[in-house]
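Supplementary Data S3. Sequence and structure tokens for construct A.
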Amino acid sequence: MTAFLGVEESLTGRRWVGPPPEEDRLAEAMVQATGLPGPLARLLVQRGVPPEEAEPFLAPALRDLLPDPRKLRDMQVAAARLNRAVEQAEAIAIFADYDVDGGTSAALLIRWLRALGREATLYVPDRIGEGYGPNAPAISELGQSHSLIICVDCGTLSHEALAASGSAEVVVLDHHLGGETLPPAVAVVNPNRQDESGELGHLCAAAVVFLCLVEANRQRREAGASPLPDLMGLLDLVALATVADVAPLIGVNRALVRQGLKIMAHRAHPGLSALADVAGVDRAPTPYHLGYLLGPRINAGGRVGRADLGARLLATDDPAEARELAERLDTLNKERREIEAAVQQAALEQAEARGLEEPLVWAAGEGWHPGVVGIVASRLKEATGRPAVVIGMEGDEGKGSGRSITGVDLGGCVHRLEDEGLITRGGGHKMAAGLSLTADQLEPAMARLSELLGRQGAGASGPRDLRLDGLILPTAATVELIEALEQAGPFGASAPAPRFALPEAALADARVVGENHLKLAIRTAMGQRLEAIGFRMADTPLGQAMLEARGGAWHLAGRLEVNHWQGRARPQLRLEDAARA
């Protein structure tokens, strides 16, 4: 296939790949049938939306897309057990994972219980001292003083740990891939159980918890119980978890996030409001804010600080406590960035030395902090377009985390490694996984994982291919067009924002702004200006080339967004790549 705009090697060393010719015909047919703008019509074609379904796709309604909770096995049992604990004023413990999905899941339950006049004990394990998921000592201790333990975003594979619950009963609300047998629990609600259809396998744990609360409310309504806690007001937490856990933004997830963003804009929850303030989010939140500003701060507690800070922040109704917790998380996030930067540089150098042509990109290092290996894996995945695994070694033992690309099930492959005895422990879901192994297992496990991922298509395209969704002229890049495109959102995992090429853009200015960011001004033939921003690009080869040139014609590639500044809204290109025209 001929390189798009003839760009065989861009300033980042990538080959540009354009849309297939057949897409042009389908996009034109979509325009004729719907009257939608061309770029939006093309985007719908890429999403597989036929013309007759364009209107409902662009306005997804939660009432139409929310599945019946009873589609999931054990859901009615789990909700009934929760309601019984409420009615009998039982002592309830919530065992939550230490990431955003676990924290929001715990906060959902705590807020629902609080609306019914009940409180719960929150337990979040320490990442380094206890590791992921339930452990026997913690479950045993909780079981001595509670009659119900609810495991959220964990527990599906914790057979031994949950057996230590004693007389306490256990409910698991999870989404990680299940094994051949279920752990000892009165209910295991998980769309990724082996005996589930997989139809709802794209839900994060918080969405599973939300469905459980929908079912619990329904049972209360049928029994004539009151009050019925408001669930719509909790959708901001579900949206945050869905985006931060990189769940595919398809089907009901799209509707959950769209509605959740509207709820979040009302700033009803003190914790989210305080976190938005310290993160500098001063306008209506977007998936970008959730995934790159709020999510990392909540995760910081579990990565380099106290594991329960995020869940406590999301559950509190006290504005003063919310401010204090948000500031602590912001400080921890800064520490996390410093640790991450050192590991990222070493991991990238190691991966490049090993080569980037294989289906899997991986790196392992002595003393790498286990709290940042997942983030670094995500950075490697973004840089190479391949699944990535990063492992921190401590002597003979290693703990690692991996991130995958759309269409490649990493969690399933990691499970297979464990089944084959190539790692000591592993689990996860399609887009992310964790594993533990010994130094002797490292090389064989990574080789086998690369083989398994390759069978699913990982590495099929060149590591430096940049896929573009079409051309757009600077004069066509308007706020109105961007807002039209956003109707197909929210954008995120499995539903990326369209990436356009601006051909032969005349560069009027290039300068450094903020912390190593590249700011460009593009001049149109009609004298108009379009600005572009390249985050953390100023000291890269691309940035240096643009700064030194300060003019000329360039092909630019990136995603369009609206830049809100001093009360004005302007179109802006978020720069990803460039090549001389």
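Construct B, processed identically:
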Amino acid sequence: MGKTRRSRMACAGVGVLAAIGVMTGVAPVASAAVAPGLQEFYGQKPTWKPCADEGELATLQCATLTVPMNYRKPGDERIAVTISKLPAKDPAKRRGVLLLNPGGPGGEGVDLPLAFADRPITQVYDLIGFDPRGVGRSTPLECELSPSIGSFPSRPTDDQFAAFTAQARNDEAACERAAGGLRPYINTPNTARDMDVIRGVLGEKKINYLGFSYGTYLGAVFGSLFPASLDRNVLDSSVSPDWIWREQFKQQAVAMKQNTEAMFGWIGERDSVYGLGKSQAEVFATTEALAAKLATKPIEDPMFGTVDRTTYDVIVGIYSRFRPLWDEIGRIVKAFKAASDGTLAAGSAEVRDAAKAAKLMQELGIAKTVNGVFQTVTCEADWPQDLQIYYSDMRLFREKNPYGYGVYRAAPTECTFRSFKPADKVTNLKRAGYQTGLVIQAEGDSQTQYDGGPAMATRLKDQLVSVADEGTHGLYSRNACASDIIDNYLVNGVLPGSRVTCPGDPRPDIPADEAAAGRSARAPQPADVTESVQRFISEKRLGKGVF
């Protein structure tokens, strides 16, 4: 879960980007338990073609399936779902297929097998990616782009709440105008049904599954609806089964505040380096004073634009989850404070570097959606219609949780004004009839707040792997300890203990003032902040593969 709409989501659909296969003929279905009217869908025979003419995607094979738009009326409208395949490298050890989902909702997954091409799972599994219904190469759900009616500050006044409401209402109306008859059938249960069709088309009795973020909920729904079709399964960076969906968003803001407090405590122990205060409380007071100044007098950089309080809140809230970046964030805030106080010129090298890094962080942090899936799937559960509920929460979040997405996560959304009736009820999650799986959760994950992981593991009676003092969202291939556990489970079937803790990425190697007493404290590296941030983003593959 990571997409936000206040950056003015671009709701244009994505067309076919490369050559894809079509379905021809009829193949034998692996499972006989096919509902009436669905045999022709399960019995499709895929015609595989390269996913692209050149580049990395050309190493994958793609095919397009036909599925019912409405599974209750399979003889009516049909839509397309595109899948991809990276065949197992060791056919003699092949143990089936591993279906992958990056999350979102609305994440494109055709290219996801490439993200794990060097992992041990590729030896024994065909890695299967897919663009879920409504997304990418599959039949897209398109929304009109609703024009922005104003600015949306991170700490709005009560008078500004109405703008959030009006924008949400306009966004919903714009999506409804372009959605045709597809929107009521873009939901998690139908995507899970598509996954079972994929299983049948591939001739597999069971699938194995690796899902990230929203994909964890999708995997849990699939297992609840099709327990006989699921084998080994990993839910990486899990949503909470009890927070579908508004509370899940609110908890993002709570997690961002927790990470910010932890970072301020670390910075406070290094006042000789950053000069922002000697304790968490002092750093908080200093930075709140800075935020107040930025609200009335932003820093203007001719090359990198305006740095105002909203920019500050976004950067501190979203990126404090990454412990290795705490030094860079501390240096950015230090430079902004100096510019605001007048001790550094706005055009100085230090301030310009900080502004450039801030722009890089802000652009990556607030993702734009490309179609209507996110604001449709998240409306599959009922949201409050009483605006006073939202306004009360917005007042609370403005004061208590202003960082990152903050107030946005408490504000009205399209779902407040939902204009369609969902085709399915929210699924009652349970594990009955398929293997014990893994739930992987980072302590400081602000996209899927930590408590969601233990809650999902408890609900499904799965093993929980926690990653301590870590904020990365999507841990497979990014955290060595968790990745090794996942590989051992998926490849060898070996479960870890019921509760296991892995170490996270280390905090910056800058000694606290107390530890540095009697010797010179090591100053931050002189390399520019932007370069350090860009290197971290590249190393962690942020913004790629996992939502």
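DSSP finds 16 helices and 14 strands in the chain. Residues 246-268 form the longest helix (23 residues).
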